[in-house]
Amino acid sequence: MPAGRAPAGGWRTATVAGLRRPIARSVELRFDVHDRVQHMAGQHYVVRLTAEDGYTAQRSYSVASAPGDPLVELFVERLDDGEVSPYLVDVVEPGDELEVRGPIGGWFVWDGVSPALLVGGGTGVVPLVAMVRHARDLGRLDLLRVAVSARTLAELPYADELVAAGALVVTTREANGIRPAARLTAMDLLPLWEEGQTAFVCGSAGFAEAASQLLVGLGIPPTSVRVEKFGPSALDSPGR
Ligand SMILES: Cc1cc2nc3c(=O)[nH]c(=O)nc-3n(C[C@H](O)[C@H](O)[C@H](O)COP(=O)(O)OP(=O)(O)OC[C@H]3O[C@@H](n4cnc5c(N)ncnc54)[C@H](O)[C@@H]3O)c2cc1C
């Protein structure tokens, strides 16, 4: 998918249609985005909060829902000292209206027809879940190989769906089945790699860097590895 072909939307009003809290310290928010531009799996939205005194803060959140879902689903993990995520996790209720901009992103998108290797850590699985859901809707789960890492299975967002899609799940703070607590290794990824795949790697800066190095170390061309890092970004700086 060449950059620039993915859809892009401007600011919209989004009404919270529903929410779930299947994992501690986080929320799945389902938005009805008015005049929504349909996203591609892998894209994200910016959510902007405005205080009564006019102060604004905006942050990026990947879309977890498939393009065909009539609602836009975001998964937000609370950072206790954060400005935006505690509000989204603890305060937002169904019926609330928020300002959002999206979909955004032209590089970290899966086209729904090409084979792909998805590698995610922690909340970095969120855009990969959109890809899995899209593949499932298309009846093409065979196109995807998935490896995900979390501290514990209970902390892995969308664990059931990922396991059902055949994901390799690595847990770093507890044993998972016969596998002891460990980080993702090159030997985990080697059997999942096939010629012609694009690799999508998403997670914290540390995870994304380490996982990309594993893939390139296996001989996968760097041009076939697309990376999304979930960290603070210039766009997300407050007051804009
Ligand atoms: C493209 C993109 C997609 C993203 N998708 C998701 C998503 O699906 N779900 C989700 O929960 N988050 C996602 N994020 C991260 C999100 O944008 C915010 O950075 C996060 O919610 C923290 O915002 P905050 O206002 O609560 O914390 P801030 O007030 O911005 O920061 C509080 C403290 O935490 C640190 N910090 C900020 N962000 C992170 C982070 N991501 N990891 C570790 N430390 C951090 C800051 O340096 C600071 O010390 C995404 C980021 C990007 C760039």
What's the β-strand tally?
A: 11
Class based on secondary structure composition and strand pairing: alpha/beta
- Quote the average pLDDT: 94
Shape: globular
% residues in beta strands:
25-35%
How many structural units, i.e. domains?
A: 2
CATH fold-type name of the largest domain: Rossmann fold
Cα distance, first to last residue?
A: 30 Å
Strand order of the largest sheet: 4-3-6-1-2-5
- Helical fraction: 10-25%
Query: Hetero groups bound?
Result: flavin-adenine dinucleotide
Instruction: Find the CATH superfamily of the largest domain.
Output: Nucleotide-binding domain of ferredoxin-NADP reductase (FNR) module
Largest sheet: 6 strands, antiparallel
Radius of gyration, Cα only, in angstroms?
Answer: 17 Å
Tell me the number of helical segments per DSSP (H or I, 4 or more residues long).
5
- Supply the CATH architecture of the largest domain: 3-Layer(aba) Sandwich
Question: Can you give a write-up of this model?
Answer:
There is one protein chain. This protein has 240 residues and is α/β, with parallel strands linked by helices. The chain folds into two domains: 3-104, Elongation Factor Tu (Ef-tu), domain 3 (Beta Barrel), CATH 2.40.30; 116-230, 3-Layer(aba) Sandwich (Rossmann fold), CATH 3.40.50. 18% of the residues lie in helices and 31% in strands. It has five helices and eleven strands; from the N terminus they run E-E-E-E-E-H-E-E-H-E-H-E-H-E-H-E. It has helices at residues 85-90, 126-138, 159-164, 186-189, 205-217, and strands at 11-20, 26-33, 44-50, 56-62, 72-77, 97-104, 116-121, 144-150, 168-171, 198-203, 225-229. The strands form two sheets. A six-stranded antiparallel beta sheet has the order 4-3-6-1-2-5. The protein has a five-stranded parallel beta sheet with strand order 9-8-7-10-11, sandwiched between helices. It binds flavin-adenine dinucleotide (FAD). Residues 44, 59-62, 75-77, 79, 81-85, 123, 126, 204, 228, 230-233, 236 line the site of flavin-adenine dinucleotide.
